[in-house]
Amino acid sequence: MNAMSKPSLEPDALDGGTSARLRGDPIAGDRYWSRDFMEREWDRMWTRIWHIGGRLAELPQPGDYVVHNFRHESVLLVRQQDGGVRAFYNVCQHRGNKLVWNDGGSVGAFTCAYHGWRYQLTGTLCYARDPENFAEGDPSGKIALKELPCDTWGGFVWYSMDPRAAPLAAYLDPIPRLLKNRDVDKMTRVIWRRIKVDTNWKFASDNFNESYHLPDVHPSMGIYVVEHYTGHQFEIYPSGHNRVVELGHPSARPIVSDLWVNTLKAWDLDPAAFEGRPAESRLALQRARRTLGPSRGHHYMTKLEDHELTDYFHHTLFPNVTITATPNDGAVHIFRTEPDANDPEKCTFEYMMLAPAIEGVDSVATVAGMRPLREAIPEELTFGVDTVGDFVDEDLSVAVHQQKGLHSRGYTDAHLTEQESRVRRFHEVLNDYLDGRR
Ligand code: FES
Ligand SMILES: [Fe+2]
């Protein structure tokens, strides 16, 4: 890929910068606030896709577990004696008490708080009080927690509520292939924030599926990334996932900032030599990182291709996860948005920063300042009350106002640019689920 051309399209990608292959399904406002629509999403989509349940680093030992609550459902992810992880509905088979009430921990067995039934890590019932008092005999060994399909990728444990779900690898394709040069599974989650926002969950899917908003919502992003769509490659995949690649060098728009100058200097490049030629500085930075990176402890760089040393790769996994791979110390940012249990106009927006190890360095630069390279504990925040991080605050501030606008009788459908084709694509894939085409 040279500096002047767009990145080449992945072999199995459709050009996401054109609407030619889209049906043109309307994106009406009620999708964002109707309770009926919210329930259809639950019945036809959320109960069929793969969800991130937890991170393997949370489950180092047999008996370690995490709970993932999603709307009214609760799923238990448990590290097994054999090293595997299994997923169970978090509900006692006696009379339906929620089995585990906290978010995670470590146990030898799960004991129900109501009548003391006990389950092994494998989910099998191993004790029921008064076993002689069951007409059919002691249920121990015969009854088990209801299990769900469970698998791992990227250091995360995933589960699906659909017993007939396609394998996780097939569901995620081609995202793992696109991220093959990043050892996401070996990275450390140095930031983990869960932010309550008064907007429908789909704002995030829409927002991350276009870069049209960058100049207006993120005016400072042009310091280090090309803002204009002609510097972006938009891709749409048959599986329903999307990607955009943004060239990593300053915008042509004059912006006063030392950031790029300092980046070049940090890699022994003379910023004056690239005055007015930011695209060339991108290529020079690739060469410098290629040459110097490993000797400076950035061993992860040896696996990265040249463009991965400077550019930004936003992967939007249908329906609600975005994985953004960056050249900034190799960090990967993951965003996940989930609906509120009851209210279609509320959601939880989750932000995680994953960082690779850099030899000789024990802390990493983040939106929250320097953080130690160790697993973060989750921070529970509320948008409008807490500061949640520069770019995230910028996106969310629009999202809450868009939610209001989407109620207006004056809005009937989106009027999109070609570069926003992935936005309509997202809604068409959602409609495929809702209408039984997927
Ligand atoms: S509901 Fe769990 S033991 Fe009775
Ligand atoms: Fe944004």
Describe this structure in words.
The protein has helices at 35-46, 168-172, 175-178, 202-208, 214-217, 259-266, 278-292, 390-405, 421-434, and strands at residues 14-15, 50-55, 64-70, 73-79, 85-89, 104-106, 110-111, 118-119, 125-127, 147-148, 150-153, 156-160, 188-197, 232-236, 242-246, 312-317, 321-325, 332-339, 347-355, 363-366, 369-372, 379-382. It has 438 residues and is α+β, with helices and mostly antiparallel strands. It has a nine-stranded mixed beta sheet, with helices on one face. A five-stranded antiparallel beta sheet has the order 6-3-4-5-10, with no helix packed on it. The radius of gyration is 24 Å and the shape is globular. Bound molecules: FE2/S2 (inorganic) cluster (FES) and fe (ii) ion (FE2). Fe (ii) ion binds at residues 207, 213, 217-218, 391, 395.
